[in-house]
Amino acid sequence: MSKRPVVVTVCGQRYTVRSDADETYIRTLAGFVDGRMTEIQQTTQTVPMQKLAVLAAMNIADELFRERAQHGAMRARIAGRAEALVGLIEQAAGVDLDAPRDEA
């Protein structure tokens, strides 16, 4: 798939993004970044655009890392519960699902 240009506006600045992703998706990303930058801009004193962009990037990265940690913890809980369920099934059925099977 070829990369298509998509023009977006972030913090009043127009940018052309070349991507093979859906245009709506690119605009959604730009809107998210714009919203985060606007939010930070409203809570800080006047700062240069570069500093505003770095603060927004740090904020978004923090959110990403926290989500990844939660996702990892959830996967671990699910794996533990699945293992416990397999143990209960094996116990109830009187079999070991991990044991090699005879192919007769």
Provide tags for this entry:
about 100 residues; 2 helices; about 65% helix; alpha+beta
How do the helices and strands line up, and which of them pair or pack?
Layout (H helix, E strand, L loop, with lengths): L3 E7 L2 E7 L3 H21 L5 H45 L11
Helix pairs in contact: 1-2
Number of domains in the coordinates?
A: 1
Q: What pattern of helices and strands is seen along the backbone?
A: EEHH
Spatial sequence of strands, sheet with the most strands: 1-2
Shape: elongated
- Proportion of residues in extended strands: 5-15%
Mean residue pLDDT: 92
Q: Describe the largest sheet.
A: 2 strands, antiparallel
Q: Stretches where pLDDT falls below 50 for ≥5 residues?
A: none
State the end-to-end CA separation.
Answer: 50 Å
By DSSP (H or I, 4+ residues per run), the number of helices equals 2
Radius of gyration: 24 Å
Helix content: 55-70%
| Coarse structural class | alpha+beta
Total beta strand runs: 2
Structural summary, described in words:
- The radius of gyration is 24 Å and the shape is elongated.
- The chain has helices at about 25-45, 50-95; strands spanning about 5-10, 15-20.
- With about 100 residues, it is an alpha+beta fold.
- It has one domain (about 5-95).
- The protein has a two-stranded antiparallel ribbon with strand order 1-2.
- The mean pLDDT is about 90.
Summarize the structure.
This protein is an alpha+beta fold and 104 residues long.
